[in-house]
Amino acid sequence: MTSNEQPTNEQQDMEVLKIATAGSVDDGKSTLIGRLLYDTKSLTDDKLEAIERTSKQKGYDYLDFSLATDGLVAEREQGITIDVAHIYFSTASKSYIIADTPGHVEYTRNMVTGASTSQAAIILIDARKGVIEQTNRHFFINNLLRIKDVIVAINKMDLVDFSEDAFNDIKADFEELMGKRDYQDQKITFIPVSALKGDNVVNRSQSMDWYKGQTLLEHLEELDLQDIYNVGTPRFPVQYVIRPKTEEFHDFRGFAGKVYGGELSVGDEVVVLPSMTRSKIKAIYFYDTEYQTAPRRSSVTITLEDEVNVSRGDMLVKVGDLPIVDKQLTATVSWMDSNQLTVGGKYVLQHGVNKALAKVDTIDHKIHPDYSGIEENVSSLNMNDIAKVRLRLNKPIFYDRFKEHRTNGSFIIIDSRTNHTAGVGFIE
After folding, report:
1. Of 237, 276, 346, 350, which residue is the least packed, with the fewest Cβ within 10 Å?
2. SS3 74
3. Which fold has domain 236-318?
4. Whole-angstrom Cα distance, residue 161 to residue 163?
5. Considering the domain 16-228, what is its CATH architecture?
6. Phi first, then psi: what are they for 251, rounded to 5°?
7. What are 136-177's pLDDT values in tens digits?
8. How far apart are CA 313 and CA 325, in angstroms?
9. In sequence order, which residues have a C-beta less than 8 Å from that of residue 285 and are 6 or more positions away?
10. What pLDDT, on the 0 to 100 scale, is given for residue 3?
11. Domain residues of the chain, as ranges?
């Protein structure tokens, strides 16, 4: 069976919008997410009953929507969120995943984890406190990870009498912070909200008629996923070589994987890395259907016109669109392990499907994620540190700079002694 169409969302991974959230303790992040779930009717009946029951037991005259997301006993006892939680909900037009991350400096690694695969972000600011040091850190991480659409939700507007002046003062302070970023393609949207009362979360506020913009959900609903994904040149890392052991498909040899960054079509001239062998795409399959084009983020099987040697970990790229092939690289590394990263230390670097042995050549400098500067003469990194690091590998990998290709420009660092993911890197 053949088709000239592209694989649809129903046939492929569901096209969803993943949103990273960040906020300081008591900024109302859990309440905001709970309100979003409640007003979109995404809470199950038993969850809603539990919220109503617990709110009444606490003597509240309102529903405590933070109970919709704080699933750990320790979180409820301390009143803070201590890990990355993923919350799923859908509307008629989109599906969403919210990566709910803690905001303290000691949880920098959690923020990086939550934002690393997100396309949009919500930064919460308490209207009474305004822009604080942690706001700087939250914005720095979203800038570092090239999040294209950032919503600054100025919360608890009910506690400042829904003041337009208070909103504008915070907006001006944040705009000053925006002048320090190095990623200019971000769109920043300011929305005044009261998560507790529901103002401008899903429904428009009756108390802030001075605000003419969209509600939080309206903004998310209108985001064009094509615009906010970091689109680059197509990269096709081979996950698996398919050779069916059946008589019918005796000569079939396909290469399964996921297309990142762009699209690939039948007839495209491609280069196989690392062998540099050339061929053309003969066919593109999704299960038993043939397609003319494989769009970005589609999982497909590709066959080539020539009998070339391709193995798991190889990469197909278009002729003329080659990535960098090298055994040395410089990256911004976020360290996530309790064991220090040290100069001279040896680790396993995993870049997509490929693994390579890596040695830390130098730590150029440590970066203070609150925009307060850098720290030089550093010989080791502790958990939650971010630094510019030079690595030397035992074999070449084929990579792009992170600012040009989010997927092919990032990697993880594995401690071979514990097999733990010890850090993540973004290639410069």
Report:
1. 276
2. helix
3. Elongation Factor Tu (Ef-tu); domain 3 (2.40.30)
4. 5
5. 3-Layer(aba) Sandwich (3.40)
6. -100, 5
7. 999 999 999 999 999 999 999 999 999 999 999 999 999 999
8. 14
9. 254, 291, 300, 301, 302, 303
10. 57
11. 16-228, 236-318, 324-427
In this structure, are residues 33 and 69 in contact, taking their beta carbons and an 8 Å threshold? Answer: yes
| Alpha-helical regions (H) of 58-107 | 73-78
As given in the structure block, the two tokens for residue 177 are 């912070």
C-alpha closest to that of 237 among 426, 117, 9, 407: 407
Q: Note the pTM of the prediction, 2 decimals.
A: 0.86
Considering the domain 324-427 in this protein, what is its CATH number? 2.40.30.10
Would 16-228 and 236-318 be classified into the same CATH topology?
no
Q: Please state the length of the chain.
A: 428
**The tokens 């906010």 sit on which residue?**
228
34: left (phi over 0), alpha (psi -120 to 50) or beta: alpha
Omega before 234 within 30 of 0, i.e. cis: no
Which residues, at least 6 apart from 84, have a Cβ–Cβ distance to it below 8 Å? 99, 100, 101, 102, 110, 113, 114
